[in-house]
Amino acid sequence: MGSIKNIGIVAGLAGVGLLGWRVLSGAEEPVTLTELVPESSVDSAVGHQPTEELEDTTRVLVPRELAAEETDEPEVLEGEEASPLEKVGGRASVTARFLDSADQPVAGVEFRLVTHDRREHGSTRSDGTGTARISVELMSRDNRQYWAWWMADDLASGEQSLVLGPDDDRHLGDILLASGAVVEGRVTDLNGAPRADVLVWWQAGDLSGHEELRLQRFGTQARKGGGRLSANASSSAVLTDALGRYSLSGVPIKIGHVWAGASESRFTWSPPLALIQGELRQGVDLILQALQPEDQICGRVVDLDGNAVPEASLSYHFNAPDLSGTGGAPVRADGSFQFLVQRNVPHEFRARVHDASISPATAAGVLPGTLDLVLTLGEEPAVTLLVQDREGDPVERLTISCYRITESGTYGTGSGTRTYPGGEVMVPAEKGTFSIGVKADGFAPARAGPFENGVVPKNHINLVLERVPSLRGVVLAGGVPVEGAVVSLHGVVTGDQWLKVNGYLSRVRSGGGAARTDSNGRFELLPDELGLHHLRVDPPQSTEATREWAGAELLDVKIAVRVEPAELTLELQRAGTLVVQVRREDGGDPGGTLVSLNRYDGAPRVVAANAEGVVRVPGLMPGGWAIDVARRELPGSGSSSSAGSGATVEWPIDCTLFAGQVTHFELVVEAE
User: Fold this and answer.
1) CB 410 within 8 A of CB 377
2) 189 and 268 Cβ atoms separated by less than 8 Å
3) Is the pLDDT of residue 91 over 70?
4) What DSSP string describes 45-63?
5) CA distances (Å), 188 to each of 212, 368, 541, in order?
């Protein structure tokens, strides 16, 4: 989907877990879907990853237990940072009334509100009048697209797309619940023996073009990385009885598949089924196959005495021609782990504990099908650093990071900021090539190494940190000092380098330090590093009087050793408002179109158009903005970044916002 830009610009003055219930035995005991996800892995894909979402509007909920399986400190690419969800500061509500075919209210309808990236925001059930209402606090800086979803016993489930903003009170009106279809069959193993307690569900959509092996390992949809997902939010899930029988009722009248899965088994699915209202489709039998050795890598994490280390953090990395990934996998109470692979390529594993005196364990070139991998902590030697300033005084409050250097990139882990008496730090060595990074407030960061093939000096290493000057000044808005403004430094992308944050080009990168202004509007900021910086000021968001103000910025601020910069006076600009009118070239409905806004500052936005195809975003920084159609929303939490060099980078500008004014822009979406 492309876009035709610069049609016209007019400026004017402006003021889970999900539950499955029915079992043929008649028992109605809730079964959490995470029983299908016994120690699965969660990872973060790097590089080019194919999109594998089904083309139907059906959505999948990530069970909460699965989402919590990530390690406390997963490995990330150097320079990658996580950012928390930002609250809009307002609430929204969605109300619906459910009726049957006789226009009678239906009580007990399950009603959920799910974000575009499949995060559940609220759930309830309809009351005796058939009414259900969900009120939620919005969790993004901009309006977002949501899915209202409903399901009732023996009635077809459904959903509706909508865009919510602060203080919206949306009424979906009366929703007629039609009779769904019923699908019945058996689940057996390869020998024809019945499989009991297998989870079975309906998934609407077309599987053509999907990688069969990936579906067998990870289910109907795999989120970014590879955590196993199971049943669909749009249909109830059931368990097979002792004879392997199942019965799915209330199946939506759509083309789709019946799915089945169980612990230690591959997922399986039926041929595509086309159902009609009220139909009873029988004989939809499924064969469940056990996980194969090549589907997984298994092993244990132990200490030097061979004892299990369940508190260890386990991470991995792989690099395939079409996909690279880094992430974490859980370690069981007995120290064992089971990891489902996405690609049949060698993997690198790393286990560690928070005790910095215990060296991590690594294993490279681990092939899928390895079922007895042992990672032993504490086997490697340690590096001793003596950290001092230029005058020879110890620097004790330090943040220590270790960087593994491989052919596919540099990967860093850190233990947080701690006090090291006398500035003496013992850092476990790594197998392979690695370096050690050291940071301290008021000093430029430094590194020791690289150390080739894990060979470290026998004696200690003297590491001298250079002091950096502080930045001081005052922030004003209309000549009045501003309390609570955030002053931040960001590195600058120069030369032939390029950087993308959440898939969008950025001229700046994070990591230069930040400070808030006091009651007199004054600030003092200790930079984290030397060199050219981008200085940015963001007004306090919680103060009503400052909402009319956008930030301010200062480019090419140079931070050098023993050079004291002048006192800075930073004036906030009045905010601009951008109104984008989306029009489709084919005359289709523009409502819900995702629009990206980017000013190359590392904070891109994606906003969904309302029912009229309009995006209105107030409080923006004046200056040039790039506007385009976005294929997906930004992640609900965290951020990803990629970087490189050697390419000619262009910074197109589609419109210019002016301080205190409304700028209108028309975005025409090309026909696909």
Assistant:
1) no
2) no
3) yes
4) EES-------SSS---PPP
5) 20, 27, 58
Q: With contact defined as beta carbons under 8 Å apart, do 231 and 21 qualify?
A: no
**Taking the CA of residue 56 as centre, how many other CA atoms within 13 Å lie in the half-sphere pointing to its CB?**
23
For 275, other C-beta atoms within 10 Å of its C-beta total: 21
3-state helix, strand, coil in the chain (%, to 5): 5, 45, 50
Identify the three-state secondary structure at position 241.
Answer: coil
Are 378 and 359 contacting, i.e. CB atoms less than 8 angstroms apart? yes
Burial 371-404 (b: 16+ CB within 10 A, else e): eebebbbbbbebbebbbbbeeeeebeebbbbbbb
Indicate whether this model's pTM tops 0.70: no
Place of tokens 């009722």: 249
| Band (38; pLDDT cuts 50, 70, 90) | very low
In the sheet that holds 373-376, the strands lie side by side as 336-340, 296-302, 373-376
- Pick from 26-40, 61-75, 213-227: least confident: 61-75
Query: How much of the chain exceeds pLDDT 70, in percent?
Result: 73
506: tokens are 């950025």
- 199-204 vs 238-239, strand pairing mode: antiparallel
Residue 438 CA to residue 122 CA, distance in Å, equals 43
Find the range with the poorest average confidence among 41-50, 430-439, 656-665: 41-50
> Which residue's entry shows tokens 């977002």?
144
CA distance 475 to 485: 7
Name the token pair of 546. 């400052």
Task: Tell me the C-alpha distance between 669 and 672, whole Å.
Answer: 9
Are the beta carbons of 116 and 634 closer than 8 angstroms? Answer: no
Question: Looking at the predicted structure, is the pLDDT value of residue 507 above 50?
Answer: yes
Structure tokens at 292: 């194969």
**SS3 assignment, position 616:** strand
Q: Give the span between the Cα atoms of 404 and 359, in whole angstroms.
A: 13
Cα radius of gyration rounded to whole Å, the chain: 28
How many CB atoms sit inside 10 A of residue 233's CB? Answer: 22
Contact (Cβ atoms closer than 8 angstroms) between residue 446 and residue 400: no
Max mean pLDDT among 207-221, 238-252, 394-408 falls in: 238-252
Q: Kind of pairing, strands 552-559 and 531-538?
A: antiparallel
Report d(CA 372, CA 561) in Å as an integer: 52
Q: Which of 222, 169, 473, 242 is nearest to 343 (CA)?
A: 222
- What's the mean pLDDT in 612-630? 90
Separation CA 594–CA 604 (nearest Å): 13
Tokens of 375: 């990672």
DSSP for 364-419, written as a single string: EEEPTT---EEEETT-S-EEEEEEEETTS-B--EEEEEEEEEETTEEEEEEEEEEE
CA–chain centroid gap for 653, Å, is 28
Closest CA to 581 of 555, 616, 632, 531: 616
Helix (H, G, I), strand (E, B) or coil at 119: coil
Position 152 scores a pLDDT of 78
Query: Does residue 89 or residue 315 have the better pLDDT?
Result: 315
First CA to last CA distance, the chain: 6
Q: Which two tokens stand for residue 17?
A: 């877990």
Tokens of 196: 């009991």
Residue with tokens 């992308």: 493
Q: Identify which of 267, 406, 417, 281 has the alpha carbon closest to the alpha carbon of residue 347.
A: 406
DSSP-derived letter for residue 273 is B
Sorted by sequence, the CB contacts under 8 Å of residue 592 that are 6+ apart come out as 145, 161, 163, 608, 609
Length of the chain: 672
Six-digit token string for 541: 């968001």
